[in-house]
Amino acid sequence: MKTRIVMPLFARPSILLPGAGGAAIIALMTAGIVNAEPVNLSLSLGDALRLAGEHDIALQSSQLDIEEGDATVGEAYSAAMPTIKATAVTGRYVVAPSSYIPAFGGRIRFQPVNDITGQMSLDQPLWLGGKVGLAVQAAQTYRKIAREGHAAARAQLKSIVIHDYFGLALARKSLEVVEETYEQAGRHVNTAEQMFNAGAASQFDLLRARTNHRLIEPEIARARQAVAVAETNLRNRLGLDPDSRIILTDEVAIGAVSTRLGLKEALFSARESRPEFRQMDLNYDLRSLALKVEERSLYWPNFFLNVTYQLQASHDHIAEVGPPDWSRGLRFQIVASVPLFDGFATEWRIEKARLALRRVELMQRQLEEGIRLEVTALLAERQRAAESVASSHAAVELAVKAFEIAELRFAQGVGTDLEVQDARLALSNARLGMLRSEYDLRVADAEYDRAVRSDQNF
């Protein structure tokens, strides 16, 4: 009967290439104290980007990927460090071994029934076919991939925040336009009533004016609902108090338009700045290192240094074991091993590594084609949005003049209510269209920067 106690004092992990998997996050949110009164919060686009960066779970997850990459590098370096292990073994013979010696008249037992062994060993890898260095390079590459993933997440988040921020600005401006149209219709009802009382307008004109005034009320309700949804969406994105009132300080309209690049220059800029390209290049390097590791798993020798210090004692009565009973030993040895055959497992792993490398090459081509198509479409969309802004501004100017003329003609009794209603509808549509085109241009500009200049994130 033996009892073995093994206590690892310093463990050297096996050489493993870092995986490409991401990290999962479980966030536990605690409820804060809600203020009794709503708080006005002035918010610029820069403030929104900063708050989103602090609150976004996907960005926090990508940051954990970077930290995991740091840990992976440390793990790879530890593969070159020694393993120190302490072992204690105690045993007792139930039937002690003995030998029959006729000269002594019977069986003689040479071995005490109790034995104790204590051992401390150190295993230091001297050379493992260069796989330790390759593992360190792979870990560093994985860390770079994680950092590029974090940069891509920040660029994507910037685009989303711009959508949400100016989406709220658009919703509020649209509500203002609808409410102003409602007020204009109300003033027109007053004018129609005065003209009807003076006999200058018919009852049909008065009823039509009142009807059109009422028809705008559902549009106001829909516009207010759109504002509420946009506010809730932005609050959730930024992690703001539900009762806070957001005051946007940046306008939807773009002031000075940044210089655009041609298609060829834009594609070159995207190739240089997009984290996705750098991630794919690094992934290719990672797969190449994996292939080298597998190729060195057969026929490449491994050398270890082993140092063992041992104490051993044997006695019939374990409580009486004393210093004279202990024997000591210290041994140094260098161990060399060469893997010669493993049932073709290494050959198949090499083949799988080559296929993985080929797959990355295909993914690189697919990424380049996809981003080429994306940049081309975004250039066309931004051109369309810029032209739409210019034409919508001109349309608003014309619609304002037409509405003023229609109201003046109706007040003078030479125009009809139908002309006023048509002019008001055209003016409202023109102003809403202008807001929408300005929002489209702002979003197209943000998407262009994400696609072509992703390194310029917040």
Could you explain the architecture of this structure?
With 458 residues, this protein is of the alpha+beta class. It has a domain at 46-80 and 133-302 and 356-452: Outer membrane efflux proteins (OEP). The chain has helices spanning 45-55, 57-78, 131-197, 203-238, 263-273, 275-295, 345-411, 417-452; strands spanning 2-10, 40-43, 83-92, 98-101, 106-109, 114-128, 245-248, 302-315, 327-337. The strands form three sheets. The protein has a five-stranded antiparallel sheet, with no helix packed on it. α1 packs across α3 (131-197). The longest helix is centred in the middle third of the chain and has 67 residues, at 131-197. It is elongated. The model is unreliable at 1-36 (pLDDT under 50).
Which helices and strands appear, and what pairs or packs with what?
Elements: E1 2-10, E2 40-43, H1 45-55, H2 57-78, E3 83-92, E4 98-101, E5 106-109, E6 114-128, H3 131-197, H4 203-238, E7 245-248, H5 263-273, H6 275-295, E8 302-315, E9 327-337, H7 345-411, H8 417-452
Parallel strand pairs: 2-7
Antiparallel strand pairs: 1-3, 3-6, 4-5, 6-8, 8-9
Helix pairs in contact: 1-3, 2-3, 3-4, 3-6, 3-8, 5-7, 6-7, 7-8
